[in-house]
Specification:
79% helix, mainly alpha, 170 residues
Length: 170
């Protein structure tokens, strides 16, 4: 808080007057960071008419992987998880305004395309996100994988979509 106040050229008291607490300030930071993610997801989902389901899923995979695996998002997630472990409501806020919106958007996408599958649409949504993100996020969080290039994101997204369609859709 001291560093933020100094860099902003304001007093620490001004920050607390506006935000009330460190947690409220952090919630505002999380919300600001998630705006970029939400806009990308909403843009992706709102423009899938006319695409095949494969093309729409590829765009969702690219947007999701690009945002979720970048250094800034990873740093934010580390802070969120640390605060959540200490009883903060930040984790719940993050989940409901970020990942949960991604799941809901995918449900809408699957409702639009009506894929033939043995799985309910809600599960397809969760399985798709898991297939796109799990391994890459674990690699990034463990320091095994450096930042992804645009080409890395494209290739991993294509592979995830193709594997998903093969495994979960008829």
């Amino acid at each position: 808080i001291n560093v933020m106040a100094r860099e902003a050229g304001i007093s620490k008291e001004s920050i607390y007057r506006y935000f009330g607490s460190k947690e409220d300030l952090f919630l505002a930071v999380v919300e600001r960071e998630l705006e970029v993610y939400k806009k990308g997801m909403l843009d992706t989902i709102s423009h899938f008419q006319g695409d095949t389901m494969k093309e729409a899923l590829f765009r969702v995979a690219e947007a999701t992987l690009g945002v979720a695996s970048n250094d800034r998002t990873l740093a934010l997630r580390r802070l969120i998880f640390q605060m959540s472990a200490n009883g903060s409501k930040v984790g719940t806020h993050y989940f409901l305004t970020g990942p949960d919106i991604a799941y809901q958007n995918l449900v809408r996408l699957f409702e639009h395309y009506k894929p033939v599958s043995d799985f309910p649409i809600e599960k397809l949504s969760r399985y798709f996100v898991a297939l796109v993100l799990h391994r890459t996020m674990l690699q990034r969080e463990c320091g095994v994988q450096e930042s992804l290039t645009v080409e890395d994101i494209r290739l991993r997204s294509m592979e995830s979509v193709e594997d998903f369609l093969l495994a979960f859709c008829k």
